[in-house]
Design brief:
Elements (H helix, E strand, L loop, with lengths): L4 H14 L2 E5 L6 H17 L4 E4 L26 E6 L17 E6 L10 E4 L6 H11 L8 H14 L10 H11 L5 H9 L5 H11 L1 E2 L4 E6 L1 H6 L4 H5 L13 E7 L5 E7 L5 H5 L4 E2 L3 E6 L2 H21 L5
Parallel strand pairs: 1-2, 1-3, 3-4, 4-5, 7-8
Antiparallel strand pairs: 6-7, 8-9, 9-11, 10-11
Length: 329
């Protein structure tokens, strides 16, 4: 499989040109990058190729990102005949939120996660990128004389870039990231409204935030963590996204370099969100049915005992890191 980004982008563009029907999908439990990249690419291609039938298909949506608009209705199986399927921001095929992708004639993967389990007839993976949205903007710039970037597409793509980069704070952000973000800003997108959507919370939400700080736990070596049980979710009226966003409350405590949120899914599984500063957590996540980026990963455990085991591993790993490294804050 060709791994040269320029050649792969050309393959993708040629495929888009040659198909009349295109299906775009993303991963389950979608975040800002997954929603922004799929909505952004769909808007970009619809403006560029109005004669094509382009569908954004996902079995899993996001109330938090509903301001970007709805997905399309799931088409009949016959729609996939002679259709191109593009899956974005999804490291492994089992996490695709569209179980019909195999019905398409050709499958393209566009992703920025560690490529542990490659899939697709064409695969464009750049692990160093801050977001899949950054890759979609790069794709546009590579063929800007043949593609039409609308304000709608720019708005969705910028949403994914700012959310997956931690508002451009994460180590994966480069000068190229900001140059590509500037391409979107030049479309005149309304960033004031965008950040209002992303940042504003109902007053009742802050009661939960206060509860988090009162009930979070910490290990000897500097792991901060919280169990978000079903009882907590019901007590504070948390939807799936609000519960998952708990991880963001734990990231600014001095000397705590790993932070974990365990979210009870209510089906026997517990979603784990892992974040870190200076130390890699991706390998730890991979040992617990997960993966992702060096310092931002996800995993799944199937009991609170297994969750405790993960915490112990994280604490031991962090203790060793602090003993052998200097300069961490």
């Amino acid at each position: 499989m060709n791994t040269d980004p320029i050649a792969v982008k050309q393959q993708i563009f040629n495929a888009i040109q040659s198909y009349k029907r295109i299906v775009i999908s993303r991963h389950i439990r979608p975040d800002g990058d997954a929603v922004g990249s799929t909505h952004g690419l769909a808007a970009l291609l619809r403006a560029s190729f109005p004669e094509k039938d382009i569908r954004l298909v996902s079995e899993d949506s996001s109330a938090y990102l509903a301001f970007l608009g709805p997905d399309d209705e799931t088409p009949d199986d016959s729609f996939y005949e002679d259709a191109l399927v593009i899956v974005i921001d999804t490291g492994t095929v089992d996490r695709v939120s569209n179980k019909k992708i195999g019905l398409g004639k050709q499958l393209i993967k566009i992703d920025h996660h560690i490529d542990d389990k490659p899939y697709g007839d064409v695969s464009w993976v750049e692990e160093e990128r801050s977001s899949a949205c950054e890759m979609i903007v790069d794709f546009y710039c590579s063929f800007r004389d043949k593609l039409t970037l609308t304000k709608e597409a720019a708005y969705a793509l910028y949403t994914g870039m700012v959310t997956d980069s931690g508002r451009f704070r994460f180590p994966s952000v480069t000068g190229e990231t900001l140059r590509l973000a500037a391409v979107l800003l030049d479309q005149g997108i309304d960033t004031e409204t965008l950040f209002a959507h992303l940042n504003l919370e109902e007053y009742e939400h802050f009661k939960y935030e206060a509860y988090v700080y009162e009930n979070m736990q910490r290990t000897e070596n500097g792991v901060a963590y919280l169990f978000v049980t079903r009882e907590m979710q019901e007590r504070f009226g948390l939807d799936r996204e609000a519960a998952s966003n708990t991880i963001g409350y734990l990231d600014s405590i001095k000397n705590y370099l790993i932070w974990l949120a365990f979210i009870d899914n209510g089906d026997g599984s517990i979603r784990v969100r892992l974040r870190s500063r200076f130390i890699t957590v991706q390998e730890l996540a991979s040992r617990y049915h997960g993966g992702g980026h060096d310092r931002a990963s996800g995993a799944t455990v199937y009991s609170w005992e297994e969750a405790e085991a993960l915490i112990r591993e994280a604490d031991a790993m962090l203790g060793e890191f602090k003993r052998t490294h200097e300069g961490w804050l």
